[in-house]
Amino acid sequence: MIGLELVVALGMAVLVSGVVAQRFRLAPPVVLLACGVLLGFAPDLLDVHLPSEVVLLLFLPALLYWESLTTSLREIRSNLRGIVLMSTLLVIVTAGAVAWTAHALGVPWGPAWVLGAAVAPTDATAVGVLAGMLPRRFVTTLRAESLVNDGTALVIYALAVGVTIGQEQLSVVHVGGLFLLAYLGGVAAGAVTAAVGIPIRRRLEDPLLGNVAMLLTPFVSFLLAEAIHASGVLAVVTTGLIMSQVGPRIGRAATRQQSQGFWNLSTFLLNGALFVLVGLESHGAVRGLVSGSLIRGLVIVGVVCVVLVAARIVFLFVTVYIIRAVDRRPSQRLRRVSHRTRIVSGLAGFRGAVSLAAALAVPETIGGGAAFPDRDMIVFVTAGVIIVTLVAQGLVLPGVVRWAHLPEDRVVEEERKLAQTVATEEAMAAMPAVAEELGTDPEVVDRLTRELEEHLAVLHAGETQLEDEPALRHDQHYTALRLALLARKRATVVRLRDERRIDDTVLRQIQARLDIEEVRLSQRELVD
């Protein structure tokens, strides 16, 4: 029964934490972690452990795929240089700085590098949740960095573990080959998966089957990359970015509507469960150390957290001055940001489940059957770093953002209005030809023309930012009236079902149509 108990406990923890986070305006991961720590005191959950395979093979592909699908490829292209530097060179620098620090505090070099590689990458899901108050450009850069840097960190991690257990030999050619295989193989596996998935998705007309194919895609991509010993993370990210560009052309409306709701719910649950499990795992990490080692572990956790933040901030400042010295193009000058903004980016490097999965995957023995040196310390420090960075930086970041006076980002809102305006204008221009081709009744054409003209008037009125514009006021009244009448319709249909004048099947069919209309009007009310 422990499996069922764990499922119920995780679900309740996600639900209660979400309510508490909204009620007290706290960062959700912070509340989820605290809830996980509290659950760890339950006797039945004392022996619950998070297998690394579950994170790497079950949680990670789905979460990374959705993050890739919903990120901006245009922003990635425009910030590609910074993303590449932060997802490769910064990871190596961070891993080295943590390894040197851990070694100075008594950890042997091999385990120190394992620890450095485990905590070096930032976590995409944590960044996505906690960095929401940042401008879109910075969030995109942070998310893209987090999506790619796992590949770099896992190569360093595999080398460090292999050297420690005596299965790897360090050489420039060997290390370079591993990095090339990880990156090129991962990108190739992702591209192949997308190339195979596109025609399949195009031929599937059933929304359920289309979403099944979509759900399988990240796992197939990850599996293919792992089969050739490449980076499964990069494979999933590559597939997601390709599908984000091709999907709008091959997908169907019903499939997209289903998938949006499914992925929003499933990734929310996966994210929440991961943070709760990290809190649960902290109990096992503490129990793995004796009292003397516990004090030493706490010291290492504190020092490593400082090193992580310091290394990130120093890297951001050093690289920007190097880039300014090398690249003096006017376009580069336009992209400059303030020092306060770089401090914000430096504090937004959260660690998450990938780091914990790497620590838990450290083998228990080395060659000859001896215990892997300081394995318990690696797990404890990694869990401690995740908790401290999420809690401390998550609580400090909002204040730092206010201190930095970041410029308001209205690009998405402006581009959304542009897209709606141009699409409506071009639809009106095409109306006569399309109506003639379809043989549409002139009265229907006139009615639709008036509707499009009213929509354009609302869009143009919205550009003036004046809420008392007649067109805006008319649209607001129209939306409010339609929503009120929809509520009356729903109540009537439910009453007819209760009177046994219609069947439950009829109720569900009509209710589905009413729900679609209500969601459309509600979203229109929020957007317009």
Strand tally is 0
Alpha carbon gyration radius: 26 Å
Oligomer: single chain
Count of discrete alpha- or pi-helical segments spanning 4 or more residues: 21
- The percent range for helix content is over 70%
Relative strand content: under 5%
* Low-pLDDT sequence parts: none
Q: State the end-to-end CA separation.
A: 50 Å
The major β-sheet equals: none
What form results from the Cα inertia axes? globular
H/E order of the elements?
A: HHHHHHHHHHHHHHHHHHHHH
Structural class: mainly alpha
Mean pLDDT: 84
Can you put this structure into words, describing what you see?
This protein is mainly alpha-helical and 528 residues long. The mean pLDDT is 84. It starts with a helix and ends with a helix. Helix 3 runs antiparallel to helix 12. It is built from 21 helices and no strands. The longest helix is centred in the middle third of the chain and has 36 residues. It is globular and about 85 Å long. Helix content is 81%, strand content 0%.
Summarize the structure.
This protein is mostly helical and 528 residues long.
Using brief descriptors, characterize the structure shown.
528 residues; mainly alpha; 81% helix; 0% strand; 21 helices
SSE blueprint and pairings:
Elements: H1 2-24, H2 28-39, H3 52-69, H4 73-78, H5 80-104, H6 109-119, H7 124-130, H8 136-165, H9 172-203, H10 207-227, H11 232-250, H12 253-287, H13 291-326, H14 330-334, H15 339-347, H16 353-360, H17 375-404, H18 411-438, H19 442-463, H20 470-498, H21 504-527
